[in-house]
Design the sequence.
């Protein structure tokens, strides 16, 4: 038997930040439990939650803001695991600038923000927290290319810490420039990042399948984050992500580890309910959703 | 003409939306995947005013960009019409630039021009000029022998005259292409805004996309459609007038 | 002034039979010369060869004392964006202004100078086209059915006027009107069908000038001669 | 012809790169803004082989997409050539769809079609078809009176014949536009891959952009340019042959 | 069969003077009828009006027993994608096959049926175009200078053959050849220039048939009559 066939839609392209997903697939963890899973890359235009509803996928990875927004609009979905314990969305800046030790240090800087993106919500929350008004900083809209940061037109630029962050750090290091990262979590703002989601129907009708899938997936993640299995993990990633060189991939993996499993005691997949609530609150305050969605009722920690 | 364009657009839009809603009901999809009628109406109420200004902002760039691309297409088309080495070289350049997806060129454009108005205009006209160029090349490379013969044999042929003759003889083709390219200019501007600007409807679409807000996108598409229909209608009317003024209804039309 | 061909040959690419086959003839002095012969025999082809710079200076075609050769034909058009009168002005140098006025008068085109080319009748189109050629510098003007759609009366007036006004130029007139050719041309090259062109004849025409008195008998003889050469 | 296209492209590319490097030196920009010659060479060594396959993959889709868009453009162009209500309705539809930036439609396309091969092809041909359409509309809407008269008055005119006559009389314009549209198909496919695929050079460009690797992008642009030049050259040669076969060198050309 | 105009008027839009001004005439029975007059007088305009469905059935133009009216002119072209012979076959119904063969023989077009239209000489183009009209169903065929570029001898052969083969049809022949019109047409509508067309005359022609014996005197009288009407 080939097992039950379905798709698993990721949030982003294959690279080190989806190491566990790749690993579980490569090592046949899904096959072992009788599942025939196709792991598919994501992109901004492809939305896992849509695919759950349309039946194109049975499971997917979505960011917390996507989940909350979808719930706000009546989507029937559940979060079954939280992959990132620390949000990789952080800001990079050069070491020839003073380090940001308190939020007040943000004042006077030219900060990049993706209008409409999570980073806008996060940064606005930080500003509110520190009592910083738009007059105290310069905000520049950010696109997909880093040229304004490279050209020093913008000082503080949003990046995904474990993928782009590593690449940029390396690039600048080659020119003899050092970088810092500004992590909002250090200042008490925990905006949840990627989580595994599935549909209400799936939860109801196929709880066994959900459990089987998730266990296989989390096993993949645990192994992938295990420093002892680093070589194997890197090997599996390399097959799908040829564009990155080995050294960078290695660095990316170690950063990813610190975001997925910040300490040995935390089990991968743990849903940080407090952080979810904070995320919902932030979005409510920013008028990204109209009403509370009671996010805690949609979080199911599967043992 | 103008009114016809507008209500025809309304029909097209309504049909498309109805189709989406049928899918929504058929598959009982949530508002997140395909927004329902109330959500769209509510969203329209919230953003309509803002989007109108955005679209007009975009249109103003599109009009400029179209003008620029007409100039560009004629320049390249006229200088590339000969099958000489230099003519084919110009064509190769023009074609190659086109082949590059604008997203790949965007970082380079940014390095050279910074962001803001200029790159937005540049991207719009780069997307718009090529189809114009193709038509103009085709027209400019085809001799009108029975008119040109005299000027050639008497040594009176100048490139300006040649261009004028060929343009005139293909006036209706040219006006079709030019007024049709308005939509390309608009699409080009929106793409430009999408990747390089902090204003315009393209920028608003990008934000809506980040938030997976299909309702906003549907409202934006509606605004774009209406404005395009109006702009296009005006251009077509102008084209007719130019045709009637410059040329004269042919014999065959009268009898 | 002299125009000569020596064993001229021409075959269209891809064709098996030659259009012009060992053609030899000689024409000299200014005035009206004709190319005459049945339809499809090769008149236009020869005319274009004479006018083409590709064949100038080849040993088969000898041209003496004629630098500028213009080929005009009845299907030409003027550009459509302004009136025919405007176009005429544009291509007329200032010293030819008065000739232009004269020609317009003779060609009976005064009334249509304000119209676009596409609004003219066929004969009017023929005439306006011919006028602009006459206003250029040329030594030999080939008129390939240039007056084909003009009525006979006016055509006669026009031919006579051209002969008078441009008495130092050579004209190669292609027409299907036997009488006209016999009457007004000094030399007529008659093409024969499906025989070697070698046997083409140059026949002396009546070469009537303005105010001529027609010698009907002579004309009939010429016409007969041409018909026999056919 | 083919060789000419290729070395002309090489000249264009070299000039552009040299220009970039002049800027780099002039402003003393570091390698991460504009990569230097060694970095580009090194990157080329690493990715060249992979990119060749990517570009060929993309080209195969582009060829399909172009074929599709030629069919589409002729279908719409022929049915929209009349100035009747339905003709203008078809035009309005075709124009409006064009006016929408593909990025805005992409989410809807994915909802309707899922991902994979079909949306990639669809996006490619949507970008490619419109410029073709404009030319074809222009050509198809212009009567060739001196040929059509007979068929009209004798009641023998069918739309197929009308189309054939107008296409034939504008053969050189059509071949120019069709072979020119190859670059559009290529650009369209790349955009499609950029947002919808997990293969092809567009996908590789997206990754390179995500990594902010301009050197890779320069290598990709080079590959695209070479392949386009070859494809274009082949199309043009084919166009010449069709022209020579279907029509016949005009009288005026011989003499 | 009858073709009549009663006080017909026509002015081109934007023009001040009428091209056709109170024109009245009547032509009946099958055979060759002519429109004759100086260039630019309005022959083509009248011919197009007669053929146009817009003017059919108006009270100014009365047409009896003629359902299909075709207008042909000398500038028409055949499509270029295949040989003229092919195009001819395409537009000939099977029962007209033998007429087609006959016409090709008479029109001397056998040799060029394999060529594309653009490769033909002007006279050949005229002839191939006329043939295809003759192979259609029609009651009245208007030939607007349809044989303008064909030589006189062949033109005569063609006209006589048409008259014989299509003796039950009406033809409206527009030509600038006075002699031809006088010889072969039964009725000639002569347009006068810059006078009211009202005074246009219909003159009786010689209407010669195949194998005719020419009454030169009668012909001269007809020609003179026409010239006077001019
Ligand atoms: N481009 C061409 N290719 C092949 N054959 C051609 C071409 N042009 C003309 N011919 C042939 O050459 C012959 C002579 O043509 P040409 O036009 O010189 O005749 P012509 O004497 O001017 O006839 P007409 O009086 O009918 O104009 C004709 O049989 C014609 O079919
Ligand atoms: N479309 C038009 N618009 C305005 N005037 C026109 C138009 N067509 C023809 N005319 C004018 O009408 C008059 C008659 O033209 P028409 O073509 O009927 O003449 P015709 O008798 O056929 O002359 P020809 O023997 O030269 O062909 C001419 O003076 C011409 O300038
Ligand atoms: Mg000829
Ligand atoms: Mg006429």
Sequence:
């Amino acid at each position: 038997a080939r097992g039950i066939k379905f798709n698993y839609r990721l949030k982003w392209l294959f690279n080190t930040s989806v190491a566990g997903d790749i690993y579980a697939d490569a090592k046949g963890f899904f096959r072992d439990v009788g599942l025939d899973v196709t792991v598919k890359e994501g992109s901004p235009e492809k939305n896992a939650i849509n695919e759950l509803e349309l039946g194109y996928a049975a499971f997917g990875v979505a960011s917390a803001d996507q989940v909350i927004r979808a719930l706000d609009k009546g989507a029937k979905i559940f979060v079954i695991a939280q992959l990132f314990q620390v949000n990789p969305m952080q800001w990079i800046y050069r070491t020839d600038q003073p380090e940001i030790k308190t939020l007040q240090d943000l004042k006077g800087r030219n900060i990049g923000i993706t209008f409409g993106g999570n980073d806008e919500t996060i940064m606005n929350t930080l500003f509110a927290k520190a009592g910083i008004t738009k007059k105290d900083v310069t905000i520049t809209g950010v696109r997909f290319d880093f040229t304004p940061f490279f050209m020093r037109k913008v000082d503080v630029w949003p990046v995904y810490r474990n993928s782009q962050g590593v690449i940029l750090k390396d690039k600048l290091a080659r020119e003899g420039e050092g970088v810092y990262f500004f992590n909002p979590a250090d200042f008490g703002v925990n905006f949840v990042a990627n989580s595994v989601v599935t549909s209400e129907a799936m939860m109801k009708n196929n709880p066994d399948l959900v459990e089987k899938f998730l266990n296989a997936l989390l096993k993949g993640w645990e192994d992938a984050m295990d420093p002892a299995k680093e070589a194997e993990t890197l090997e599996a990633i390399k097959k799908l992500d040829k564009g990155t060189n080995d050294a960078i991939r290695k660095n990316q993996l170690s950063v990813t580890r610190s975001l997925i499993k910040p300490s040995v005691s935390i089990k991968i997949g743990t849903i940080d309910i407090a952080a979810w609530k904070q995320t919902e609150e932030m979005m409510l305050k920013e008028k990204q959703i109209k009403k509370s969605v009671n996010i805690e009722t949609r979080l199911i920690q599967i043992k | 003409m103008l009114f016809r364009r507008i209500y025809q657009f309304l029909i097209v839009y309504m049909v498309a939306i109805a189709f989406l809603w049928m899918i929504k009901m058929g598959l009982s999809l949530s508002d997140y995947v395909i927004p329902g009628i109330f959500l769209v109406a509510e969203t329209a109420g919230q953003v309509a005013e803002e989007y109108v200004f955005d679209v007009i902002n975009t249109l103003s760039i599109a009009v400029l960009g179209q003008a620029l691309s007409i100039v560009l297409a004629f320049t390249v088309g006229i200088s590339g019409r000969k099958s000489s080495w230099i003519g084919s070289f110009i064509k190769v350049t023009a074609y190659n630039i086109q082949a590059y997806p604008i997203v790949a060129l965007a970082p380079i454009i940014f390095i050279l021009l910074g962001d803001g108005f200029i790159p937005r205009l540049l991207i719009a006209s780069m997307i718009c000029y090529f189809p114009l160029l193709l038509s103009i090349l085709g027209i400019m490379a085809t001799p009108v022998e029975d008119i040109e013969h005299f000027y050639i044999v008497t040594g009176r042929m100048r490139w300006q005259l040649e261009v004028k003759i060929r343009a005139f003889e293909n006036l209706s083709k040219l006006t079709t292409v030019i007024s049709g390219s308005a939509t390309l200019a608009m699409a080009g501007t929106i793409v430009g805004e999408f990747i390089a600007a902090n204003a315009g409807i393209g920028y608003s679409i990008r934000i809506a996309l980040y938030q997976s807000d299909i309702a906003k996108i549907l409202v934006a598409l509606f605004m774009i459609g209406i404005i395009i229909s109006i702009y296009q209608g005006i251009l077509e009317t102008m084209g007719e007038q130019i045709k009637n003024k410059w040329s004269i209804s042919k014999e065959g039309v009268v009898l | 002034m002299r125009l000569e061909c020596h064993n001229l040959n021409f075959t269209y690419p891809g064709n098996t039979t030659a259009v012009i086959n060992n053609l030899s003839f000689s024409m000299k002095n200014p005035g009206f010369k004709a190319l005459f012969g049945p339809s499809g025999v090769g008149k236009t082809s020869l005319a274009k060869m004479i006018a083409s710079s590709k064949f100038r200076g080849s040993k088969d075609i000898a041209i003496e004392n004629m630098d500028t050769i213009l080929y005009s034909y009845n299907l030409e058009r003027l550009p459509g964006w302004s009136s025919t009168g405007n176009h005429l002005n544009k291509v007329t140098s200032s010293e030819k202004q008065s000739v232009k006025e004269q020609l317009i008068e003779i060609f009976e085109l005064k009334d249509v100078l304000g119209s676009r080319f596409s609004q003219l009748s066929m004969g009017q189109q023929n005439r306006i086209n011919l006028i602009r050629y006459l206003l250029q510098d040329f030594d030999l003007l080939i008129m390939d059915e240039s007056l084909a759609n003009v009525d006979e009366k006016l055509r006669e007036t026009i031919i006579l006027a051209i002969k008078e006004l441009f008495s130092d130029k050579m004209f190669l007139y292609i027409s299907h009107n036997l009488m006209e050719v016999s009457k007004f041309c000094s030399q007529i090259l008659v093409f024969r069908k499906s025989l070697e062109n070698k046997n083409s004849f140059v026949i002396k025409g009546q070469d009537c000038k303005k105010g001529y008195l027609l010698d009907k008998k002579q004309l009939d003889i010429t016409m007969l001669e041409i018909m026999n050469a056919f």
